[in-house]
Amino acid sequence: DYFLDGISKSRTELQQSMDCISEWFKLPEEQKMENYSAEYLVETCDYINRRVVSNFDSIQINSRIEVENIFKGKTFSYMVDIFIILYTNAFYHSGYIENLNLLTIDLLLVEKDTELVLEMKNNLSSEIDRDELVNIVIEIQEKLEICISSGEYYNYEGKSGYIKICKILNYNLECANSYLQFGLMQDKNHYFTRIVMPKSVLAEKERK
User: Fold this and answer.
1) Residue 27: its pLDDT value, please?
2) Mean pLDDT, contiguous 10-residue spans, the chain (208 residues)
3) Alpha carbon of 166 to those of 39, 120, 178, 180: distances in Å?
4) Which residue of 108, 112, 115, 136 is surrounded by the most CB atoms within 10 Å?
């Protein structure tokens, strides 16, 4: 089982390393993180990736950032966590972890009316079993429904990080009106994750 067995150990080790580094950006409660821009968020995650992932700079990353608002400082560490989870999924679930120069990631972070949209899309190796991937997505979606309805996020992790993302959205960011979508794209050669949340959860003010 490529997804659930073959790469789980390596993916877990990478996630632990990223978690360790991302802890550097978490301040004690008595200290406040300054408000930050979307660009600074992306730059921080790139810095973490470079410290942990060999040949990170060989990945083709296409970023589109269209955000006018400055984000609330208290949301910073949670947003870093979300980004790192999405990147880690792309590294390990694309089938290109040994050939990152073949991996392409499209990152979208834009404001649309009252919403903030975060989307990450990556190509998939021919080694990835598409039918198996669809079944895994269905399984994760079923676990997420249980977690959201019960409010329990600790007993159902499936090595994708999606349950942790839902916990961050619903508990840490108190963003009940957000939603998470993920799965195989129609061309069956790309995988995507999309998170949509109200701008008011993150936005502090518009840039001058």
Assistant:
1) 46
2) 40 52 51 88 95 93 96 95 95 94 98 95 97 94 83 64 91 90 96 96 75
3) 23, 16, 9, 8
4) 136
Spell out a b/e string for 36-71, using b for 16 or more CB atoms within 10 Å of the CB, else e: bebeebbebbbebbeebbeebeebebeeeeebebbb
For residue 150 the two structure tokens come to 């019960």
What pLDDT shows up at residue 80? 95
> Which of 150, 203, 148 minimizes the C-alpha distance to 170?
148
Phi, psi values for residue 100, rounded to 5°: -65, -20
Angstrom distances, CA of residue 99 to CA of 10, 47, 51 = 15, 20, 18
Please give the torsion angle defined by the CA atoms of residues 17, 121, 158 and 186, in that order, rounded to the nearest 10 degrees. Answer: -160
Residues in the chain, overall count:
208
Give dist(CA 104, CA 5) in Å, integer.
24
Distance CA 188, CA 123 (A): 9
Distance of alpha carbon 72 from alpha carbon 200, whole angstroms: 10
What residue type is 181 in one-letter code?
A: Q
Collect contacts of 133-137 with beta carbons under 8 A, ≥24 apart: 133/3, 133/184, 133/191, 134/183, 134/184, 136/3, 136/4, 136/160, 137/182, 137/183, 137/184
